[in-house]
Design goal:
By secondary structure, the protein is α+β, with helices and mostly antiparallel strands. The chain has one domain. It has a four-stranded antiparallel beta sheet. Strand 1 and strand 2 form a beta hairpin. It is globular and about 50 Å long.
């Protein structure tokens, strides 16, 4: 399993795979900001706000896959603070590590 060391590395993998998660037009459309921390080599945070919305930015946990794809972990804009989202990303990473350890021990089948 690939472990990324920086957001720039994730962006490059996404771009090299022909994907557009980080393209300027996509970022503008979702009014997104990418936060710089990479959590456990695969997770990172974005924050979004609806266009013209006076509400505060909300945070989303993202997962960078080996193939450069980026998916949402949990719900889009699920967290009111960066701290809440960061903790959720840490928990998701811990759950992933536990699951992989169980697969390695043979107690769980590997899911697609």
């Amino acid at each position: 399993m690939k472990r990324y060391t920086s957001i720039e590395e994730i962006k490059k993998a996404n771009r090299d795979a022909g994907r557009y998660f980080f393209s300027p037009s996509t970022m503008r459309f979702f009014n997104s900001r990418v936060h710089s921390d990479v959590i456990d080599g695969r997770y990172f945070l974005t924050s979004e706000r609806a266009p013209g919305d006076d509400e505060p930015r909300m945070f989303t946990v993202r997962l960078a896959h080996d193939d450069g794809d980026v998916t949402t972990v949990g719900d889009f804009m699920a967290y009111a603070t960066k701290g809440e989202a960061y903790r959720a990303a840490q928990l998701a990473a811990l759950d992933e590590r536990r699951r992989l350890a169980e697969v390695d021990r043979g107690s769980l089948p590997m899911l697609p």
